[in-house]
Amino acid sequence: IFEAECLVDNVDGDIASEPLQFGCLKSSPFQRPNCEALDRLLSEVEAFSDPTSKEQSELDSIYHKSAAIVNKLSKPACIFLLKNWLLSLAMCDVGILIALTPIDQTNATTTTTTGVALKTLQLQGAVTPGMIECNGNKWIYSVKIIDCGNKSAITLRKRARKEQDIEKL
């Protein structure tokens, strides 16, 4: 990741400032190149991110193995990793809007209750709202992605730096 950050800093406004074009994605939209070193690196990253607690020596070992593997990556593998890193930056800055309205305005309760199960009656479609039921009341809902316009990597890096400054307060 450090090398990717350096690349973005060095390019500063050229390739790194080109906006990313993408939709909502669950996995990488980029074709994964055939590279044995990339496969090993991703395996090491998985081991590193495993939530089970590890000794510092084990973490250091995984880090050093990963750093050595990075030097063996092919150019397409590096590009693949950089594209995914830039995409992950962009996905950090997506806003959603959730709208709820009761179907029967007169009988809908406005109190909130913790732990109440929602029953999905109809999933939201591309142009139609969804419907849920809660405490016997039916609600129409709509979830929209907003503020997902194209943002350059430089813009997102500046936002991340500002957030880090706020976290220090």
Could you name the ranges where pLDDT drops below 50 across 5 or more consecutive residues?
10-26
- Total helical elements: 5
Spell the H/E element sequence: HHHHEEEEH
Rg over alpha carbons: 22 Å
The main sheet comes to: 4 strands, antiparallel
Overall number of structural domains:
2
% residues in beta strands: 15-25%
Q: Report how far apart the termini are.
A: 26 Å
Protein name: Inositol-pentakisphosphate 2-kinase
How do the strands and helices of this protein lay out in sequence?
Blueprint: H1 2-11, H2 36-49, H3 56-70, H4 75-91, E1 95-102, E2 119-122, E3 130-134, E4 137-146, H5 153-167
Helix pairs in contact: 2-3
Protein name: Inositol-pentakisphosphate 2-kinase
Organism: Proboscia inermis
Task: List the defining traits of the structure above.
4 strands; 2 domains; four-stranded antiparallel sheet; elongated; alpha+beta; 169 residues; 5 helices; 42% helix; Inositol-pentakisphosphate 2-kinase
Structure description:
- There is one protein chain.
- The protein is an alpha+beta fold.
- The chain folds into two domains: 2-94; 95-146, no CATH class.
- Helices cover 42% and strands 16% of the residues.
- The chain contains five helices and four strands.
- The chain has helices at 2-11, 36-49, 56-70, 75-91, 153-167, and strands at 95-102, 119-122, 130-134, 137-146.
- It has a four-stranded antiparallel sheet, with no helix packed on it.
- α2 runs antiparallel to α3.
- The longest helix has 17 residues, at 75-91.
- It is elongated, with a radius of gyration of 22 Å.
- The chain starts with a helix and ends with a helix.
- It comes from Proboscia inermis.
- This is Inositol-pentakisphosphate 2-kinase.
